[in-house]
Amino acid sequence: MSIAKFLVRRTLQAVFVVWGVVTIMFGLRAVSPGDPATLMLGEGATAETIARVRAQEGLDEPIYVQYLDYVQGLLIGDFGYSWRSNREVEAMVIERIPATLELAIAATVVALVIAIPLGVVSATRRNEPADYGATLFSLLGISTPNFWLGLMLILLFGVWLGIFPTGRRPVGLVEAIWTLVAFGSAGDLLTWLQHITLPALTLGTYFTALITRLTRSGMVDELGKPYVTATRAKGLPAVLVRYKHVLRNTMIPILTVLGLQMGTLMGGAVITETVFNWPGLGLRLIDALDARDWPLMQGIIVFIAVAFVTINVFVDALYSSLDPRVNDE
Amino acid sequence: MREDVLRVEGLSTRFFTGEGQVNAVENVSFDVREGEVFGIVGESGSGKSVTGLSLVDLVGSPGEITDGELWYRDAELADEVREEFPDVVDGEYVDLRGVPESVRTSLRGTSLSMIFQDPESSFNPSLTVGEQIAEAVEVQQRASSRPRSTRARTDGEEYSLGSLVLSFALPSRRYVSEESRERAIELLELVGIPDPVERADEYPHEYSGGMLQRAMIAQALAGEPDVLVADEPTTALDVTIQAQVLDLLSELQAETGMTILLITHNLGVIARMCDRVGVMYGGEIVERGTLEDVFRDNVHPYTEGLLGSVPDLESVGGSLDPVPGNVPSLLDHEMEDRCYFADRCPKAMEACLERPPDTRVEADGDHVVKCVLTDLEYGESPPLPDDHFETEGADASDGGSNESADASDKSASPDGGDSR
């Protein structure tokens, strides 16, 4: 099967997934208690005002009409208005994407930079102190809850040592880079780095631990395969056997996990963003939930779904270029 | 007489497993002459493959070569290491066990190469066949362009992690050069792969088993080795393809003059290919000599059994099932201090309860047997009763995990002998 056909099939599947998410979200909203007009207007609103708003929002239409209206709106990019702030949902989602994206990428970078070397060392020095250390680290990393780790990092590095700020995002990466390029001032970039370090570590720890374990076990498996002996038998330098052959093959399955995790991170790490008051999608989602701001909630979740499946299609495409056997199946 | 290219003396390789120490190769000695095909034959689990891996220093953990000398003839290498390691040099021969690991590593592929039983699992599935063969070419290119001095060999890995990282940024710094890729295509053509230019860009899963075994042979030839260790090169192939691959090996040997150490359980392959042969049992070579010595004038009852020609053995009659019982457990604590074959041997005597020494059949000959029958006639020492091992030796013959595989091996042996 050609790569184009493969991608078309995966994209169609992705569309179905997103449609499912949209429908489930709509259904949840329909069955959840509380009248939206009352939520929008507050307790003191008169019955007349409520009726007017209901008519205006189409809330007195039959449910399937509301559903079709909603899906139709989504198709042309109209996510509706936030009930709470009366702003366009698209704008409210888009303005939060950079913060979430920055955090997701930073956490992934932390994870890859730490996890892969750690996994390789662990696998090539099996049952030596370095391996025990790496295994212990990944066990702790996987079992430590995010909110606790975040708070402890804040306490240690923010409060006691005062090295890193404890939260917020005073400047975005794009602006910081712009300042550096246009004015030659690295100050903003440093500020950004300072502010993202703790959230990225918090969010990245679980991820790091996971990838370390996967790298170790994958590499141990690969090292035991006959082709490794055969490759060594032809005299190839150990570095090439280890990285060009073994690590490359180990990375193929890890890539899938990486993609899934990136998708999850795109949804905004709700807990980490809350702990560090990091103005990403996760924090906005929590706010929307608190306010029962259904259009905003739906908008964010649909965005997350789209991001998730897009990344997965992308990973699948990459996968097929790394593992030649995928295309033939 | 041709000179020895490899002399193996007292080689022992052990595996230190959770169940105990496994004596996979036990005090094995043989010599391989330049340009010949030396065969090693035996059942699965007899230590053949580990012997092969020991020669190219690829016994992986938990295995380890614990004893023995591997004298390899290489005048140039001998000159290099003579000063630093005088004890391991004898004329043109160097004991590879006595030189640093980096020297052994530098010989791999270019002096001693190995091909394996299952070509499909012996290629990396995610790189093209051409690329993998080109890597082997590159190893050879770099080895021949580098000054062959001990210093260069022992200074450690010349291809570092840094070089690898750099090669991602600069394609010109890649390990495999364009010339090596072209040479890989030539090699594919040499081993009889049609459309080598296209096939070079295909992945192992796009090849058939026979084609892939040819490709593996091409890969081994890329290093222009003096000695090729071929570990069951045809076992995983269809019978018709087997013959083609063996013919190919013979042709290539005639062209290059390389020496082949052929490891197989198939006596037919041995008869067809080899000049001399060693029979392995229980981690030992129990009989070695020329084809004639082993096929016709054999002394060891195991060899006899393996050949399925047991004319003087009334108890078995005309049956072709040569050796009843299973290969012994090679676990150290289950191995008794006796001839390991005694419990299956139709001619077991009391003298067999001691370890038999390697004995030459003729004082100046090449036919060496590890059996008391070399010097004794059956009956000169009191025969052991049939149930001798059923009580005390029950454990020893029960162990091991290869029984089912052994059975199929044995059944393959007699017809192999007939096809000679």
From TrEMBL, chain A:
Family note: Belongs to the binding-protein-dependent transport system permease family.
Protein name according to UniProt: Peptide/nickel transport system permease protein
CDD domains xref list: TM_PBP2
A GO-annotated cellular component: plasma membrane
Entry-linked InterPro entries: BPD_transp_1_N, MetI-like, MetI-like_sf
Residues passing through the membrane, by range: 12-31, 103-124, 136-163, 192-211, 252-276, 296-315
A Pfam family the protein falls into: BPD_transp_1
Species: Halorubrum alkaliphilum
Residues of the ABC transmembrane type-1 domain: 97-319
Keywords attached to this entry: Cell membrane, Membrane, Transmembrane, Transmembrane helix, Transport
Source organism, top-level taxon: Archaea
Subcellular localization: Cell membrane
Membrane topology field: Multi-pass membrane protein
Any GO BP annotation: transmembrane transport
Automatic annotation (TrEMBL), chain B:
InterPro entries the record matches: AAA+_ATPase (IPR003593), ABC_Ni/Peptide_Import (IPR050388), ABC_transporter-like_ATP-bd (IPR003439), ABC_transporter-like_CS (IPR017871), Oligopep_ABC_C (IPR013563), P-loop_NTPase (IPR027417)
Membrane-topology annotation of the record: Peripheral membrane protein
Positions of region (Disordered): 378-420
SMART domains listed in its UniProt record: AAA
Domain ABC transporter as annotated: residue spans: 6-307
Any one GO cellular component localisation term in the record: plasma membrane
Subunit structure: The complex is composed of two ATP-binding proteins (NikD and NikE), two transmembrane proteins (NikB and NikC) and a solute-binding protein (NikA).
Record-given protein name: Nickel import system ATP-binding protein NikD
Taxonomy of the source species: Archaea, Methanobacteriati, Methanobacteriota, Stenosarchaea group, Halobacteria
